[in-house]
């Protein structure tokens, strides 16, 4: 009997992972994104825009590099995602601490748009919790946080 077969059939033993973790996470991510989009889209925000605007409102003004790190984005992705928010007047880029740096800050219109998005996001979160169950969502958050911490620790060792 193969190792994975015996592990999955013996009582009290965990089954070996099967399939592609990346694919499974991307499938879950797309399903959750569709769920949130249904709630947040009527505000005129995309999920990525809401998340970015929220970080700027909560932690700004901040350097784009700090924002990218906080959101786990590379610099080019952050720059691309900031462009619509700048064009709509929801954020502004200004001078940073020295002549070589910049900072990102939310405008009054941006703070108002974030508040509108937050109300929709809250409804999306409550609906997701109701669909999946609070306990499952809490367990998912804990597992994701643990996995991120482990991957970050491994990256620091590399």
Instruction: Quickly name the level 1 CATH class.
Output: Mainly Alpha
List low-pLDDT spans: 1-8
Q: Name the shape in a single word.
A: globular
For this structure, the CATH topology is Arc Repressor Mutant, subunit A
CATH superfamily: Winged helix-like DNA-binding domain superfamily/Winged helix DNA-binding domain
Structural class: mainly alpha
CATH architecture title: Orthogonal Bundle
Q: What is the H-and-E element order?
A: HHHHHEEHH
Strand content bin = 5-15%
Q: What is the distance, rounded to the nearest whole angstrom, between the alpha carbons of the first and last residues?
A: 37 Å
Radius of gyration: 20 Å
Written overview of the protein:
The protein has 158 residues and is mainly α. It has one domain (21-157): Orthogonal Bundle (Arc Repressor Mutant, subunit A). It is built from 7 helices and 2 strands; from the N terminus they run αααααββαα. The protein has helices at 3-9, 21-40, 47-59, 64-71, 75-87, 108-132, 134-157; strands at 91-95, 102-106. It has a two-stranded antiparallel sheet. Strand 1 and strand 2 (102-106) form a beta hairpin. Helix 3 (47-59) packs across helix 5 (75-87) and helix 6 packs across helix 7 (134-157). The longest helix is centred in the C-terminal third of the chain and has 25 residues, at 108-132. The radius of gyration is 20 Å and the shape is globular. Residues 1-8 have low confidence and may be disordered.
